[in-house]
Amino acid sequence: MAAFLLQRLIGTVPVLLLVSVTIFSLMHLIPGDPVQVMAGEVQDPEAIARIRADLGLDRPLYRQYLSWLGNALQGDLGESIRTREPVLDVVLSRVKPTLQLSVMAMIIGLAVALPVGVISATRRNSRLDTAATTFALLGVSMPNFLIGLLLIFFFSIRLGWLPTSGYVDIFQDPVEGFRSLLLPSITLGMALAAVIMRMTRSSLLEALAQDYIRTARAKGLVERRVVIRHGLRNALIPVVTVVGLQVGNLIAGAVITEYIFAIPGVGRLIVDSVFARDYPVLQGVVLLTVIGFIGANLIADLLYAALDPRIRMR
After folding, report:
1. What domains are defined for the chain?
2. Which of 7, 67, 172, 276 is surrounded by the most beta carbons within 10 Å?
3. CA distances from residue 148 to 153, 164, 181, 238, 300 in whole angstroms, order as listed
4. What is the number of other CB atoms lying within 10 angstroms of the CB of residue 212?
5. What is the pLDDT at residue 240?
6. DSSP H helical ranges for the chain
7. Which stretches of the chain drop beneath a pLDDT of 50?
């Protein structure tokens, strides 16, 4: 296990290096000039040149990249062009709302997808299976912003059950925090549930057709035990892979969802930084997001051995 972890960590080094080059290049391809944004109405060429020199934007791009990479390896992601605060502090101040939203969306997605996927697979071609397939199709097809707006219209405006927007820390006020995060979590969790449900159904159908399932049934085991202990456990391996990959979709979906529901998280920070042409913050957010995505997939790989004893990592 230790050798496997070391091998995976070493393998992430070239990935992160390539990602850092891509991030830096894409950030500087964004239309607009952050210096002009900072200068505002001031059009004095000398003042603009001074601001550009202070920010280091007058140097060649390769020198800017090497400087940024060297500082990033020491934990320094630079300063925000807009607020002059350290990028790491700016990002960490926005992480809590996004983590709470993502975890709650993941819980909702798994709580819906796994039982619905199992029922759909065990009752194939039934009305329940048709309804579940329709739900999955809608969840995959509908964009997050449309789901969010529909939820706000029905549950906030028409029924008045939940707030339309805003954020309350769930650790400071559990009830209000839960109410403020419920609609955005359902918005993110619906697409997640659809993808996981479809994978659970197809994977479980394949597992239930294996010889060891027929052997378990021939021994007289209860059908529920056959499905859950023997079928679902082996079917969860591709599901875990999909869940790990969906972490990226959660973060991408949080950009729009947080903006719609006025949640001061990382997604909202990305949108604000794009409008402000705040290159250091954008680079820092994307880099930390990629690291989190790689970590999530590493955890998914480690779960394989727990789900299937046949898998050995040496």
Report:
1. 2-73 (no CATH), 88-307 (1.10.3720.10)
2. 276
3. 9, 10, 12, 29, 29
4. 12
5. 80
6. 2-27, 34-39, 45-55, 61-73, 87-122, 127-141, 144-151, 174-208, 211-218, 223-225, 233-260, 266-276, 279-307
7. 314
